[in-house]
Amino acid sequence: MFVLGKNEKLLSVALVVTLILVGCGGGDSADTASSSAEVAVVENPVDPSTAGNISGSVAFAGNAPAMDAIDMTAEPVCADKHASSPMTQTVVVNDNGTLGNVFVYVKEGSAIEGMQFPIPSATLLNQDGCVYTPHVVGVMVDQEITIRNSDGLLHNINATPTEQRGFNTSQPVNMDTSQDFGTPEVMVPLRCDVHSWMTAYVGVVSHPYHSVSDGSGAFSLSTLPEGEYVVEAWHEEYGTQTQAVTVTAGGTTDITFTFSADMANAVVPMGTPIDPHKHAVATDQQ
């Protein structure tokens, strides 16, 4: 039988310890490098001192259509959260004659092509009182959306995009779910299959130049490089409108979009949702 002498034993122990230390040290270095790459921060490529802005409003012409009341008698927890009978949000005409819930964004602009922008922090889409708040929201590609159930009863979020795979997530209790979209798309419809009146729309773009008209019909697109742009306004009932806009350094260009009741049932840009099963088969055959 082969027996190690004293010196050989010491040498063997030292070798084993060295190998362990090297292995652990190498792992830490790789993890550190990987972590450093993951936390790399993208700086905003636009110089604010040479940038300009677009601001404006969305007007509504004609008589505001009456929206349907939502019957929540089967969900008293939600009904009790509303001071008056909740109404559908398909068309929201403000007291000053403007139109809310219009998604306004830069559709084209050579000045921002190829630019990489920092991804904003998560935006909140809340299910409260059995309605989605906000009804229309904009995000950047890969920006996290925190979808919250504030009602404590069963909701589900069924997203049916046309340019990417959707999701259908159940939320049986008070909870948050995080989702994001990896491809630009205007718009992505969301619905709750439990409560048929619950709908929302998400506009996904590759840059931060998007806005939703508020309770006064106003919107704002700030800190754009000077140049020529095409700005689009999207509404779920009245379709889309575009305007060519020139942005100058240090200036603010004001624009107005006008929708009317005559535009009801317009062709709204949203295609047939992707069937993930057919999509997978087509991919395999390529």
Strand content: 35-45%
Named CATH topology: Immunoglobulin-like
Please state the overall shape, judged from the principal axes of the Cα atoms: globular
| Biggest sheet details | 5 strands, mixed
| Sequence stretches where pLDDT stays below 50 over 5 or more residues | 1-37, 279-286
- Regarding CATH, which class? Mainly Beta
Average predicted local confidence, pLDDT: 85
The total domain count is: 1
Give the end-to-end Cα distance, rounded to a whole number of Å: 63 Å
Which secondary-structure class do the elements indicate?
alpha+beta
How many strand segments? Answer: 16
List keywords for this structure.
alpha+beta; 5-stranded mixed beta sheet; 286 residues; 4-stranded antiparallel beta sheet; 16% helix; disordered N terminus; disordered C terminus; globular; Immunoglobulin-like
